[in-house]
Amino acid sequence: MAREQALVISRQVIRNSANAIRAVHRNDFSEASRLILEASGLLTETDRIRTDNPEIYYAGFLSDARKEFTEANITLAVISGGDIPDSEKLGVDPPAYLNGMAEVIGELRRYILDSLRSDDIGRCEEFMELMDEIYGILVTVDFPRGRNRRIAPQHRCHAGSAGTNPRRPDHLLQQRRLEQRLAERER
Fold first, then answer.
1. Which domain of life is it from (predicted)?
2. Could you tell me the pTM of the whole model?
3. In this structure, which topology does domain 2-186 adopt according to CATH?
């Protein structure tokens, strides 16, 4: 019974979190907040599972739900200009929080690329610096692998590595700046 309930909650939290992130990328922050609030209520229902069945609570599917919930919350906070919530405020365990934070690097990259496509470079550097900061924090965290095989924020954030990832949008930002300077000179 508890496992089935946890699976249903996990799927709903992951769906709401993914939809909240999509809403953030559309700048629909009120919809994102609504979806996150709904996901938060669902996660609260797992408190009893944590007490009665910790093996289910810490199973991969609920850990993934807490990670996705964290990712949605931090993505909303960063892009909307709010304060980044900590793990206690979100009610998630530190491993899920750090894994969710690692996923935010990809969401910031997506936001930057979307901004560059629409010639809006206003916050791109700010977000690239934040990506660097998140990456810098996560690579210093050392998690014992034996405790939970699913925890590997260092591995998750290597794709967002500031200095080594050729897909990082730095070169696009530089190109947009150059295009803007050339356009200003032509005037």
1. Eukaryota
2. 0.81
3. Methane Monooxygenase Hydroxylase; Chain G, domain 1 (1.20.58)
